[in-house]
Amino acid sequence: GAGVSQSPSNKVTEKGKDVELRCDPISGHTALYWYRQSLGQGLEFLIYFQGNSAPDKSGLPSDRFSAERTGGSVSTLTIQRTQQEDSAVYLCASSSGTSVNEQFFGPGTRLTVL
Amino acid sequence: AQSVAQPEDQVNVAEGNPLTVKCTYSVSGNPYLFWYVQYPNRGLQFLLKYITGDNLVKGSYGFEAEFNKSQTSFHLKKPSALVSDSALYFCAVRDLRSGSARQLTFGSGTQLTVLP
What we know:
Oligomer: heterodimer
Low-confidence stretches of chain B: none
Mean pLDDT of chain A: 91
Order of helices and strands of chain A: EEEEEEEEEE
Helix content of chain A: under 10%
Largest sheet of chain B: 6 strands, mixed
Largest sheet of chain A: 6 strands, mixed
Number of strands of chain B: 12
Strand content of chain A: over 45%
Radius of gyration of chain A: 13 Å
Order of helices and strands of chain B: EEEEEEEEEEEE
């Protein structure tokens, strides 16, 4: 079956512009996560959606970052007024929602802010 | 709070030799532990997990990991390394007692290179 997909795979933007990154989770997965992976770094948690519950936004680094999940499926991560330090790979993952289950990751979106 | 440490940024091993990638964790309750592998320009792939039960967990591609509660470790092992095992390996932990119970905390990753 289809895995987690993300688009675009690469995004180059200029400092100050807004960007939107998209994630299509595995069908039926109720939990969706966004992570950021900077060069040579581990994964930094950004935000978590579980069903219809309020999202856990505790990892968002600034108010320039926001995310939404429409209809419990597709999610969009928006970064406003991008800065060079936002350059990273943004990974999306989904899981069936219980804490014991592993997360399935998408291939990521590589964001480069010039 | 939950945390995980991977003390080695880089591990090199000759093909055919056993490999170990180290991971230690810190949680206030019982941990759920995971290993993921990342190949170049790819997302993370799940390898194995420890939830409860046997301390030795077997996973994909011949990998296994041993949960050691007294040493708070969850080292990844493979008896005979392949060149194709060369990749970036991440250990992750979840602590259901913490406020971030739904989140995985990842280590910084260990780059494994298997030399032919």
